[in-house]
Amino acid sequence: MTSKFIWVAFILATLTLSITFSLQPDEQKVLLVSFDGFRWDYLYRVPTPHFHYVMKNGVHVKQVTNIFITKTYPNHYTLVTGLFAENHGIVANDMFDSILNKSFSLDTMNIYDSEFWEEATPIWITNQRAGHTSGAAMWPGTDVKIHQSFPTHYMLYNESVSFEDRVAKIIEWFTSKEPINLGLLYWEDPDDMGHTLGPDSPLMGPVISDIDNKLGYLIQMLKKAKLWNTLNLIITSDHGMTQCSEERVIELDQYLDKDHYVLIDQSPVAAILPKEGKFDDVYEALAHAHPNMTVYKKEEIPERWHYKYNSRIQPIIAVADEGWYILQNKSDDFMLGNHGYDNMLAEMHPIFLAHGPAFRKNFTREAMNSTDLYPLLCHLLNIPAMPHNGSLGNVQDLLSSAAPRALPYTQSTTLLHGSVKPGEYEQEESYAYFIGVSLGSVIVIVFFIIFVKHLIRSQMPALPDMQAEIVQPLLQA
Ligand SMILES: *[C@@H]1O[C@H](CO)[C@@H](O)[C@H](O)[C@H]1NC(C)=O
Ligand SMILES: *[C@@H]1O[C@H](CO)[C@@H](O)[C@H](O)[C@H]1NC(C)=O
Ligand SMILES: *[C@@H]1O[C@H](CO)[C@@H](O)[C@H](O)[C@H]1NC(C)=O
Ligand SMILES: *[C@@H]1O[C@H](CO)[C@@H](O)[C@H](O)[C@H]1NC(C)=O
Ligand SMILES: *[C@@H]1O[C@H](CO)[C@@H](O)[C@H](O)[C@H]1NC(C)=O
Ligand SMILES: *[C@@H]1O[C@H](CO)[C@@H](O)[C@H](O)[C@H]1NC(C)=O
Ligand SMILES: *[C@@H]1O[C@H](CO)[C@@H](O)[C@H](O)[C@H]1NC(C)=O
Ligand SMILES: [Zn+2]
């Protein structure tokens, strides 16, 4: 009887210890969120308490240099590949590939041709190849078949699906029986309203407040699902926005014969494909057409843009000065806000904030390159990075100095109840973990000593009997 009791006690104690240890993740969970067109300084336009809550308890980078052209699809693909546009192949929202003889257009949602995406391998595929699972709520490209795969879980793009429904999916995937380790969440604003109103409009205040409330909702849901302290939340964007005006329009029709070229992409980087034999005519007519538009032959595009070596970059590009608008015909669509300009311009820069066990707290960094996010993500997920143009070393100081893979992780529910002060319950979690490990260890050691003593004293003579019992069935067979 006593020996059975000791066995049970020993197993229980071992379980306590192993559960405490097994709750530590082998790799970190990451949720990457993009609020499209969230310019870096929107954080200071109106009160944004939820963004500031993340900053105070996490990290914040003030100036993120994104990639040229500062458009949605090129930059979202950079965030998940670490490559410049010329290397990942999504060089614009509207493209023509002269080798494939195919077009790509965000305007008409003609974006599902795999070939456009396959010059790179996005992180969700690498994550899955490493044996993990990923989930994507409408991140650009995540409902496209790339290298024969989709994310493990994904939603078909539908801009009418609410933020709340997207968050619900993300939470469901992170808490399922086979939880994802990588989640990607995308929201269309403040880009949409920024284009319509122009970023200088006072009406942008409520738009930014609304995004802050959405972040608050996400944080609330993550806390409710007991994910807030265990996953690494990264909040960023693809680009900023600048104010345009109908006073600053450059009309191509004034300088060029429409029959001499095809306009592949519009403003502020006009991608121009001259018709057969018309290259010189088009270039000459455009080169000095307007003081606020710089015209480049493809081979003259500045190196710093890393925007040259790809067949989807057209023979001539015309780049507008900040706030200037290129239209073929003045009657074409015009928007009060736009982006796509030189990536050196501060107004083109997005936000970057992060919170979680891997990140430092209340830490601000002046600058980073958006290409550096990819190696950071690979590091957090503990997966091999594909060749890329970023550097983990550039952003390593965002990570907490305490070894990121051995941070507190418990499923304790009671301690989390009703906690409001963030710093407080993070500490409570550490204590719970510490107490769990210590208690478990003490119990195991005590019972091990008792067990060994017991074994030596009383079990030894019984050993021959036990052996006999084991041998018996064999003899009977
Ligand atoms: C390119 O595709 C178009 C149809 O989309 C076709 O009319 C044209 O002949 C093709 N050009 C070449 C060179 O194959
Ligand atoms: C898009 O989502 C909305 C809202 O959930 C839904 O009513 C609509 O049917 C969806 N559209 C498509 C094409 O699935
Ligand atoms: C537009 O061009 C004029 C003349 O060169 C220049 O003074 C002005 O700074 C330019 N505007 C911008 C936004 O660069
Ligand atoms: C611009 O568009 C208007 C309306 O479609 C048209 O009447 C006009 O001729 C166009 N201008 C040029 C220069 O093609
Ligand atoms: C955060 O850091 C700033 C400056 O480094 C400091 O003034 C502030 O007190 C810190 N806040 C907290 C909550 O630690
Ligand atoms: C961004 O990348 C450039 C070119 O590789 C590098 O010179 C610069 O230091 C990087 N910026 C930061 C903030 O790491
Ligand atoms: C960017 O990375 C790709 C892939 O490693 C490489 O081929 C390319 O040369 C890099 N670009 C620059 C400017 O270093
Ligand atoms: Zn965008």
UniProtKB/TrEMBL annotation:
Signal peptide residue numbers: 1-18
Stored InterPro entries: Alkaline_phosphatase_core_sf (IPR017850), Phosphodiest/P_Trfase (IPR002591)
Entry's transmembrane regions: 431-452
Pfam families in the record: Phosphodiest (PF01663)
Species whose genome carries this gene: Phyllostomus discolor (pale spear-nosed bat)
GO cellular component, one term: membrane
Keywords: Glycoprotein, Hydrolase, Membrane, Metal-binding, Signal, Transmembrane, Transmembrane helix, Zinc
Residue ranges of coiled coil: none
Lipid bilayer topology: Single-pass membrane protein
Assigned protein family: Belongs to the nucleotide pyrophosphatase/phosphodiesterase family.
Protein's name in the database: Ectonucleotide pyrophosphatase/phosphodiesterase family member 5
Compartment(s) where it occurs, according to its Swiss-Prot or TrEMBL record: Membrane
Single GO MF descriptor: hydrolase activity
